[in-house]
Amino acid sequence: MDFSYPSEVEQFRAELRDWLSANLTDELVAARRPAGRDDAAIELLRAWSRTMADAGWAAVSWPREYGGRGATVLEQLIYTEETTRARAPMPLNVIGMNNIAPAIMQYGTEDQRTALLPRMMRADDIWCQGMSEPEAGSDLAALRTRAARDGDDFVVNGQKIWTSLGHRAHWCQLYVRTDPEAPKHKGISCLIVDMALPGIEVRPLVTLNGDTDFAEVFFHDVRVPADALLGPLNAGWQVATTTLSHERAGAARLYAEMQVRLEELVDDIATQSGALDDPVILRRLGEIAVRIKYLEVLCQRSISATLHGGDPFASASLAKTVWGEIGQDMAVLAFDVLGTGGANAAWANYRLSSRSLTIAGGTTQINKNITAQRVLGLPRK
Q1: Is 81 a catalytic residue?
Q2: Would you state the pLDDT for residue 329?
Q3: What is the pTM of this model?
Q4: Catalytic residue among 81, 133, 247, 296
């Protein structure tokens, strides 16, 4: 797990740092966690995506033929660390770039790749992912949204929920059940759906902190062209696996993000007279700092497994669980010390939004099952 960086990788780091220093503005740093994703924030982040794409920094892990840099795992690690520590905004299409695009590259037609990927990278089109349902959240195989073949179309009926930017999206990577008689993992297909098709109803969801990053999406007899199928019929589970396993060094963002948040919290607590002299506050800050270091080790174990042919998934699942718990505990500490007005109420907002950290991207319960089975070797029952 001892990463050594060749000279060309260090050159990659230096080039990225120089570019970020020249292009990352205070306005963009302030917008990296926009409340509610209003129109102004969306346009600012779209412009940032275009700036990064034009400079070749929007999708470093993508192959060069699709506009990326074909970055190695170590270069991806550096990219994640440097952009996070510089407080650069995440791509507006982060789900599309990291999760959906790899599936299009592997399973899509050449026409789909050519038409969709450049516009996704530049955020000309916003993408969402239709996975979670009211009774099938982390259990994708339990989905019930149906797609029945009718001539040259699939007719889709059902509902998706907690769809990130669903009310902003132009396209959806939609998972549907196409064979209700097959075992639940076997009868799923993936469709690329134009969100402007008749019969699609989108309702924004307001979360605890007042944000509207999510939506629920209803499909009422939506006719999707059969050539919108991504991958083989009834092979959606394989497409989903490809989608969710692509980002090989993405785990680095977990510890890098928490390191940045802790630095910001210490700076904000320092504005409270005598707070950093309080032994209880110092102890709580120290415990979080140590846990973040442990998180970094976990993430680096996952990345090391990728480099050396091991199983990165188990360590990454455990790291995700730890990341969510650290984030929630940091939010509690911030709220205890700073109250509702700390740093212009940013920490109060984080206190509310942090409740999602153990749900989004795989619930803690699911990740603990993965840890039990794939790390500890415990039986399923």
Answers
A1: no
A2: 97
A3: 0.88
A4: 247
